Q: What sequence folds into this?
C-alpha cells in the first residue's frame, strides 16, 4: 500500500504537508471562480450546473485530502456509499409529489 | 471504582478495532457525519422542492445575489477554508510531536471560527434591520434555517476545539496518540462543517 499521511514517520510526514497547501490554494481559487461566474448572469440551468460542479470538486478536495478519504478504510467507504444512497432517496423522494401535482 | 478504571476505559482509542480496522472514535465520528449528511440533506431537499415549485425565486423578485450579501459570504467562505487548513496543520503538528505548533494552529482555527460568526452576525442584523425575518417568506425561512443550523455547527466546533486547546491538552502528557486521534476526529467534524458551507454558499447566495 502506498505511503499515506496517516501512517508515516514524522520525517516522511513533512512531505505530505505540501499537498495541504496546494489544496488550500485550489479551494480559494475555485471560490473565486464560482463567484466570478455568478456575475456573468448565465442562464439558470447552466449557472446551477457550473456552480454545483465547482462545489462538488471543492467538496472532493476537502473530503479527499483534508479528511484523508483517499486513503481510508473500506468500512468508511461502505458507510458513505450507504449515506449517499439515502441522501439521493431523500433528495428525489419529494419529486414524486411534483409528478402527482402534474397529474392532478 | 478507581481499581476498575482500566476495565471501564473505552477500548480501541488508539489501536484499530480488529473488525473495522479503525480506532473506535474515528469510526464513530464518521457514523455521526453520516447522520449529519441526512440532517442537512433533508433540509436541502426541502429547499429544492420549495424552490422548484415557486413561480419566482426569490419570491419578492430580483436575484438571490442582490438580496444577500455576496462579498461578505465570499469572505466567510475564504475564512472557513483557511480554518480547515489550520485545523489540518494543528493535527499534523501533533503527528510531528510539536504541541507548541498545535496550540498555534488550533488557536488560529478557533479565531477564524469566531471571525465567521461575527461576519454572520453582521449579515443577520442587516437583514433584521430591513425587516427580513424567517417569517417573511420561504426564501428567508430557508436562508435562516440552513445558515442558522450551519452556524450552530460552527459554535459546536468552537466548543470542541477550545476544549482540546485548553484542559483537553492534558491528555497529551499521558497519551500522545490518543490526543492526536481526538484532534483528528475534531478535524473530521470541522472539515465537514466547511464542506456543508461549500454547498450552501453557491446554492443560497449565487444561484
A:
Amino acid at each position: 500500500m502506498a505511503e499515506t499521511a496517516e501512517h508515516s514517520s514524522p520525517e516522511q510526514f513533512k512531505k505530505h504537508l505540501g499537498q495541504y497547501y496546494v489544496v488550500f490554494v485550489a479551494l480559494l481559487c475555485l471560490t473565486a471562480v464560482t463567484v466570478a461566474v455568478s456575475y456573468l448572469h448565465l442562464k439558470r440551468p447552466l449557472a446551477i450546473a457550473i456552480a454545483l460542479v465547482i462545489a462538488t470538486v471543492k467538496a472532493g478536495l476537502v473530503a479527499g485530502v483534508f479528511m484523508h478519504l483517499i486513503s481510508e478504510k473500506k468500512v468508511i467507504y461502505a458507510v458513505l456509499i450507504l449515506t449517499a444512497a439515502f441522501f439521493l432517496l431523500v433528495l428525489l423522494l419529494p419529486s414524486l409529489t411534483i409528478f402527482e401535482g402534474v397529474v392532478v | 471504582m478507581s481499581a476498575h478504571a482500566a476495565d471501564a476505559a473505552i477500548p480501541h482509542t488508539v489501536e484499530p478495532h480488529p473488525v473495522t480496522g479503525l480506532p473506535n472514535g474515528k469510526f464513530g465520528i464518521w457514523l455521526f457525519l453520516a447522520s449529519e449528511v441526512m440532517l442537512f440533506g433533508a433540509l436541502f431537499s426541502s429547499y429544492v422542492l420549495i424552490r422548484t415549485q415557486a413561480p419566482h425565486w426569490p419570491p419578492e423578485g430580483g436575484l438571490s445575489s442582490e438580496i444577500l450579501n455576496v462579498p461578505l459570504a465570499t469572505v466567510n467562505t475564504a475564512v472557513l477554508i483557511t480554518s480547515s487548513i489550520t485545523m489540518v496543520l494543528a493535527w499534523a503538528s501533533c503527528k510531528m510531536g510539536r504541541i507548541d505548533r498545535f496550540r498555534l494552529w488550533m488557536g488560529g482555527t478557533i479565531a477564524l471560527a469566531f471571525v465567521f460568526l461575527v461576519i454572520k452576525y453582521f449579515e443577520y442584523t442587516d437583514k433584521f434591520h430591513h425587516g427580513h425575518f424567517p417569517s417573511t417568506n420561504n426564501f428567508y425561512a430557508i436562508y435562516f434555517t440552513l445558515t442558522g443550523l450551519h452556524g450552530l455547527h460552527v459554535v459546536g466546533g468552537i466548543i470542541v476545539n477550545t476544549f482540546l486547546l485548553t484542559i483537553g491538552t492534558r491528555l497529551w502528557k499521558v497519551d500522545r496518540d490518543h490526543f492526536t486521534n481526538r484532534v483528528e476526529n475534531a478535524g473530521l467534524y470541522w472539515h465537514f462543517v466547511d464542506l456543508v458551507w461549500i454547498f450552501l454558499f453557491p446554492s443560497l447566495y449565487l444561484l
Notes: The mean pLDDT of chain B is 94. Chain B has one domain: 10-206. Helices of chain B lie at 5-8, 24-53, 64-67, 70-95, 99-129, 138-165, 170-174, 176-206. The two ends of chain B are 59 Å apart (CA to CA).
